[in-house]
Fold this sequence. Notes:
Blueprint: H1 20-28, H2 35-47, H3 51-71, E1 76-80, H4 90-97, E2 102-107, H5 110-120, E3 126-130, H6 136-141, H7 143-148, E4 156-160, H8 172-181, E5 188-194, H9 202-211, H10 221-226, E6 232-233, E7 239-240, E8 259-265
Parallel strand pairs: 1-2, 1-4, 2-3, 4-5
Antiparallel strand pairs: 5-8, 6-8, 7-8
Amino acid sequence: MDLDQDDLRAGVIDTSRPHPARIYDYLLGGENHYAADRLAGEELLAAAPEARAGVRANRAFMERAVRYAVGAGVRQVLDIGTGLPTSPNVHEIAESVAPGVRVAYVDNDPIVKAHGDALLSRTGSTGIVLGDVREPRSVLGHPEVRRLIDFDEPVVLLLVAVLHFLTDDDEPARVVAELRDALPAGSHLVLSHATGDFADRGEAEAGYSRKASASLNLRSKDRVESFFEGFELVEPGLAQISYWRPDSPPPAEAAKIGFYGGVARLP
């Protein structure tokens, strides 16, 4: 799609530096990326050959998790760090289970916002806003988020492949806790996070952090599980994403994929 030239002005969108959402799009096989993103993606693949299978498995995990949570009766979704639109999008997945689900997308990349605006312009049950997960109160208080999400009713909170872009100094546990405390009982947290538990990925972590506009911070299972504090994990708990309630045989690379994922309910 053609972006508005105002959005492309210097300082708003920097296409010379790789961005996580566009690298992810490249690894997924999308078309919404630039040369810098492709180069960073290829360097990541050189250091972690399973990375392409990993982002695809992560996308499949998200689809299964959204179907589960909406199937459990939740009719609102807050997707923070949504990334570039990839069909089926969250609202399409949710509506396939229960028509009329409201979805608020949040991302800090203006290109994501521009694509989202074009995609969502014909529906009143979805919207997208610029926001940063590091500032949960700003996200929660955004007028468009408030238009779509009634925080007196259960919400599906998606934090899919986003917290590993937060350093420890960003206090990811605090971020999740502030978001959790805004949710009513019956809400669900869907979370996935990159890890180095299954292979030494120090080179990939360092290389990605040097190149991209956000650092990559791999965390252990115990660290990732701590983000679910206050929630009750549903079976099978926190697992490698390909093994979380698979609806088809996991890919051959499943055991090597460095992603954990889980879904939990707020009692």
